[in-house]
Amino acid sequence: MSHIITEQNQTVDQRHQKKSRLMRQLKTQMPQYEGILVFFDRVLKERETYRSEFCKFLDPIVGGDPAQYESRLKKGIPLLDRNDIRFDNKIMAGHLGRLVKILKSGSPNKSAGSSDTFRQMKNLHLKTFFDKNPFSGEAPLSGLFSSPVSGDLMNFLVSEMIHPVLSIYAEKIKDRIDFSQWNQGYCPVCGEFPEMAALSGDSGKRTLISLACGTEWQYSRVKCPFCENENQQQLSYFFIENDEQYRIETCDQCGQYIKTIDLRKKTPPVDYEIENIITIHLDMIAREKGYSNAGPFRETQPPNPSMTQVYH
């Protein structure tokens, strides 16, 4: 069963309240993250509002033939064809406008590039988010800002526009499909690479998590999900001393990393979206060591604790 809170029959407030309660607990346990947790609490509430609006737009059914899905998976093809995803420019533009207001008023970093730069969006076709590289000169968001926008800010805004939509589609289909035979490093539903992984069970079974759509699937512990490297001399992981519930798994062949939670050492409940926020220091450490991975919007710089490296 997924650790991500995805119950479709809950109201916006109910869904947000579960996450908000967990973040309040974490603020007392991890005061260094209080600012960013307060900020993301507002973002997550807006995300739930956006998802609720889109669910009504997509109602009654997002689906398809399960046999067709099985055929796609056997060929290594993710289930979602983005050409089939429906859009509503008004809903997306409203969400983007509210996100920018949150950035203006609630971002821990006031100079994040959003202040006094938001423009009219009536002629912006937000479907292009799915068609263009958000970091290219043709990125549709670039027209919203009068000054250059940082890569992290652009990544954050584009992710917040796209991922909630993907999660709606994923929830409609993933529970009908058996992913046990899927052996790819990218998500069987949306096709995105995982942002996090988890270890569970006596044997430390590895599960990859797509934060783009909320899908989880099992994957080999001794194989890089990004380049499929199985050379154990090139695969290793780091962990913070006295905090072995988290680790950074790395691959020297492709230079990628993935944050991993050891659920055997973690006290529930676990929400991967929030875990991704409170482990930003691991992203920073991995980047300092020369590894890369697409990740969340980063605005804080926690102290760099001592690390221990282990080779598989």
Cα distance spanning the termini:
28 Å
Radius of gyration: 19 Å
Number of domains: 2
Q: What oligomeric arrangement do these chains adopt?
A: single chain
Number of extended strands: 7
Report mean pLDDT, rounded to a whole number. Answer: 78
Q: Decide which structural class fits the backbone.
A: alpha+beta
Number of helices: 7
Q: Tell me about the largest β-sheet.
A: 7 strands, mixed
Work out the strand percent: 5-15%
Q: What order do the strands of the largest sheet run in, or round the barrel if closed?
A: 3-2-1-6-5-4-7
Choose one word for the global shape. Answer: globular
Helix share of residues? 25-40%
Give the uncertain stretches in residue-range form.
1-9, 110-123, 132-140, 295-308
Order of helices and strands: HHHHHEEEEEEHHE
Please explain how this structure is put together.
The protein is of the alpha+beta class and 312 residues long. It has two domains: 12-176, no CATH class; 196-311, FdhE-like domain (FdhE-like fold, Alpha-Beta Complex). Helix content is 35%, strand content 12%. It is built from seven helices and seven strands. Helix 1 (12-29) runs antiparallel to helix 2 (34-58). The radius of gyration is 19 Å and the shape is globular. 33% of the residues are buried.
What distinguishing features does this structure have?
FdhE-like fold; 312 residues; seven-stranded mixed beta sheet; 12% strand; single chain; alpha+beta
